[in-house]
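Hi again,

Forgot to attach this to my earlier email, sorry! This is the prediction with FHN bound. I've pasted everything inline since the attachment limit keeps bouncing my files.
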Amino acid sequence: CSLLVQGQGQKNYQPSPENLEARQWFQDAKFGLFVHWGVYSILGDGEWVMNNQNIPVDAYEKLPAFFNPIDFDAEEWVKMVKDAGMKYITITSRHHDGFSMFDTKASDYNIVDSTPYGKDVLKQLADACKKEDIKLFFYYSLLDWNRDDYYPRGRTGTGIPGRGEGEWKNYIEFMKTQLTELLTNYGDIAGIWFDGHWDQKEWDGKKFGKLKVDWHYNEIYKLIHDLQPQCLIGNNHHIAPIEGEDFQMFEKDLPGRNTTGFGTSESDIGQLPFEVCETINGSWGFNLQDRKHKSEKELVQYIVKAAGYGSNLLLNVGPMPNGKIQDEHKESLKQMGDWLRKNGETIYGTKAGPSGPTDEYATTQKGKTIYVHLLQNKDVVFIEGFNQRIKQITYYGTQQKVTHEFNDYGLLLKIQEDRQDPIDTIIEITLR
Ligand code: FHN
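Structure tokens for the complex follow:
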């Protein structure tokens, strides 16, 4: 991939056959569950609460004593994921607050040693996933508001009182120890999802500048691929892919769009498989006051548009401190599952289609079949640039033909009113 950022990553990385196979699986999977869960969920104010409220390190460290998710049932989560039509889970093994949700020897600041619950939730999840053939990814924060050896501090966290000044090289060693544990004690791991790179970039209040530290990606990525060659590496750094990465993710924006400030510019789009992550409401971690729950239409249209880019959708839930998922989130996931049971053929295993996505439509393609997803109720829709020769064109799931005509610029579809679906009207085109 010509866009790869050279020099920082795993030098001369050649993905193994297992890795290439895993990339193909990933590309076909299309839908996964993102989980932001940690001791912050107790406060019900999102995963950035430590930073947003400038909670001193020693005060925040009292939180784990209250974390006792006795209602957590890994099998129930995995069943919910399967019913939603999702193929994988990406869970926060350690977020920016530095608290490890797994059994680690690298620090006592973890779920087994510091909470009354005392059990490893990642282990339980890994076992349940294995049983049900759901793949598991670990989110791993590069940035850390807790550790002294995360020094120099990043641009976030400087307002959090109570830090010492440790050694950066110790921090890198700490991460390597934890990543080794994550890739040794939980069976086959589908991927590691890094986040927080941007914390160590210069920031003038408006835009990012140069990177201030060496993340040692060369060693870290190599370690991961040596331990588990199939393990896919993604990094939410909001720049073009770095050597050694296996997929590119886009936060809260479709590839190449930047409506949120977290997006990635057109010029940073590489050729690795894509993943877009989005929240089911407005928050990643559990937030008591969040009322921005997305509708079924918004969520379905998001996966459709993501697939129109050839991208997966990683849809987030923030479990409650007791280990349960909010009812309204469960309901949304169920609706997605119902929709995918009917229409999954037009999403799973597809690649980006020849036109769009636009606000009106997205297209996906599998071999000689193109699926046109119409996202607005209109009698006439023009698919710009579509010029392939058509053998047959029907409303998806029926034999009923769609009235259409070509002009110099594309394909004009005339949609019968009684065939218009308020969420997504799907047209199936078989090419000659
Ligand atoms: O700061 C994090 C945030 O808490 C969350 O984890 C998201 C998920 O994509 N990523 C970061 C912001 O880029």
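The pocket of FHN is lined by residues 47-48, 195, 236, 251, 262, 277, 284 (CB under 6 Å). The CA atoms of residues 172 and 192 lie 16 Å apart.

That should be everything now.

G.
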